[in-house]
Amino acid sequence: MEYLSTQEYRHIVRIVGNDIPGERKMLVGLTQIKGIGYNFATAILDTLNIDSNSNIGHLTDENVQAIEKLITNPAEGNFPTWFLNRRKDIETGNDLHLLTSDIPFTLRNDIERERVTASWRGYRHLSGLKVRGQRTRTSGRKGGAVGVAKGGMAAPAKKSSSDAPAAAAAPTTDAPAAEAAPAEAAPAAEEKKE
After folding, report:
1. For the ranges 104-108, 113-117, 166-170, which has the lowest average pLDDT?
2. What mean pLDDT is reported for the chain?
3. Residues 105, 110, 113, CA angle at the centre, nearest 5°?
4. Which pLDDT value is given to residue 1?
5. How far apart are CA 160 and CA 158, in angstroms?
6. DSSP-H helix ranges across the chain
7. How far apart are CA 18 and CA 41, in angstroms?
8. Read out DSSP for 61-117?
9. CATH architecture of 12-79
10. How far apart are CA 96 and CA 5, in angstroms?
11. Is residue 67 scored above 60 in pLDDT?
12. Rounded to two decimals, what is the model's pTM?
């Protein structure tokens, strides 16, 4: 507990390039660093014998350096290999733990490598489909609805405002009579104009 009394309180603590507010608890503050989850933060604090309930603003410079050293090189903390987030890296063959911007960069490289090698996963990534064998019959759908239109019949085409009185007329069941009616009305209108 000497780290609480020897150093004054800091409002912002910088760990591995991340600014963490000093009022955060140790556990929550460390999980703000991308690549460090709850379990990894707990393991770091237990290895260094730091109270997880104290505020992160009370850390000394030595404790910050010790935390950064464990985060960047977790092999020194004797963490098991399954604890790391990148085991058996394809390029190096080593067990790594990626942090911050390295995570999306490596993910993009992995997907691009699968596309170039034309693997099945690469094809699925290219098509925007699920990659890990999930069902796609009901879930994972994108875009508009596909299927039968509601109501059973196609919706009538929208008419302009000048056709409003004609649209209000009751439909007749006799189709030939309906076609003949407009033809008869047209010559009568021409006669009135003359």
Report:
1. 166-170
2. 78
3. 125
4. 47
5. 7
6. 2-5, 26-31, 38-47, 61-72, 102-116, 120-127, 164-168, 175-193
7. 15
8. HHHHHHHHHHHH-GGGGT--GGGSSB-S-TTT-S-B---TTHHHHHHHHHHHHHHHT
9. Orthogonal Bundle (1.10)
10. 36
11. yes
12. 0.60
